[in-house]
Amino acid sequence: MDYLSKKIEDIEIRINRGVCISAATCVVYAPNTFNIDDKGLAIIKEKDWDRVEKIVAAAQSCPALAIEVYQGGKRMYPV
Ligand code: SF4
């Protein structure tokens, strides 16, 4: 299992890097939130994230369903 999670204020993002296929559409939808590391897998930036709508759009865009988004403890995606 290669899980990554980060929380800023009431938003929490989790990435299951074990299923990430390096498609990088998350970076296209939310470039201030996601990046690709030197292994080609998604990582979560430290600060100044995109608005939650963009983060959810990024999660929806992921072909591997690798991204989960929570707001205030409630799961926003997948629903
Ligand atoms: S969109 Fe999904 S599969 Fe593609 S890099 Fe991001 S987390 Fe990985």
Automatic annotation (TrEMBL):
<dbReference type="InterPro" id="IPR051269">
    <property type="entry name" value="Fe-S_cluster_ET"/>
</dbReference>
<keyword id="KW-0249">Electron transport</keyword>
<keyword id="KW-0479">Metal-binding</keyword>
<keyword id="KW-0411">Iron-sulfur</keyword>
<protein>
    <submittedName>
        <fullName>Ferredoxin</fullName>
    </submittedName>
</protein>
<dbReference type="GO" id="GO:0051536">
    <property type="term" value="F:iron-sulfur cluster binding"/>
</dbReference>
<keyword id="KW-0813">Transport</keyword>
<keyword id="KW-0408">Iron</keyword>
<dbReference type="Pfam" id="PF13459">
    <property type="entry name" value="Fer4_15"/>
</dbReference>
<dbReference type="GO" id="GO:0046872">
    <property type="term" value="F:metal ion binding"/>
</dbReference>
